[in-house]
Amino acid sequence: MTINFPETSSTMKNRSEIDRNLDRSFIWLTRIFALAIAGTLLWIAVQVTIAAWPAIQKFGFNFLITSSWNPVKNEYGVLPAIYGTLMSSLIGLILAVPIGVGTALLLSENFLPSQVQLVLVFLVELLAAIPSVVYGVWGIFVLVPILTNLGKWLHNYLGWLPIFSSAPTGPGMLPAGVILAIMTLPIITAISRDALVSLPSSLRQAALGIGATRWETIFQVLIPAAFSGIVSAVMLALGRAMGETMAVTMLIGNANNINISLLAPANTISSLLANQFAEANGLQVAALMYAALVLFVLTMIVNILAEVIVTRVQRL
Asked: Is 179 in contact with 253 (CB distance < 8 Å)?
């Protein structure tokens, strides 16, 4: 018969000391990684600000409210690009949020066989892996002709509305917004689905147990419970849409003016940087870096708002 002797107290003490050291090391390692991320973000902000400083000194706040962009006269204003960035992102979200949340419900609430759900989840995630330039090329040859025909119909019959007041010329705000909706759809769907799937099954069972229908359970119990996750998905998608460059540059028309019509060409900050940075010099480089700093601040504001909204919802 084998007799197992308990570990001596010294051995247990040494092991517990090793575990404590490992715990402390892991905590400090995670702190270093977190500080490294914050430091990288701060370093980028400082470098962009230094590069933009000549333009900040020359134009100041007027850079944000001026529409002229004339490298020959050294006149620069980023207001049309700010408008185009916000409006195209808003169009993308208006189209993507209901589709994305609806798809997340479809893939999380067992409306389909599990094998079909698995395939659809894979296809949705595959959308996020498609390069931006591929979306742009597809948009030029497929999306723009379709939306041009649709835009002609909208202009002919609803042209009295300001948003359809201009005749479509091909690339414009609407194609850019639609392509952003397609590109942000995987983010909204995947994160919203994860938020819904992570809900305890007791919520569904309790709602059904008191006589709620399936749709009442979804809209009155599940969506409110997963609301913080859905808001996070929407805000992350908004950040992606605001910073998207290649596909939007290929589809938005790159016209540096403000037009309320969705059928007219427009511009975004990312498109402005992509189109002009290669040939820029002197004060124009500083102006472009100033525009990049504006986009940096806008994206930061979006992320801060997302954290505030999620925190407040979680407290309810």
From this structure: no
Mean of the pLDDT values across residues 158-171? 88
Q: How far apart, in whole angstroms, are the C-alpha atoms of residue 184 and residue 180?
A: 6
Mean pLDDT of the chain: 86
**Residue 282 reports pLDDT greater than 70:** yes
What is the rounded distance in angstroms from the CA atom of residue 299 to the CA atom of residue 155?
33
CA dihedral 74, 80, 82, 87 (to 10 degrees): -170
- Residue 5, pLDDT score: 47
Structure tokens at 89: 């992102």
Report CA torsion sign: 299, 240, 93, 114: negative
Nearest CA to 272 out of 294, 260, 257, 288 is that of: 288
The dihedral sign for the CA sequence 64, 65, 70, 76: negative
Q: Count of residues for the chain?
A: 316
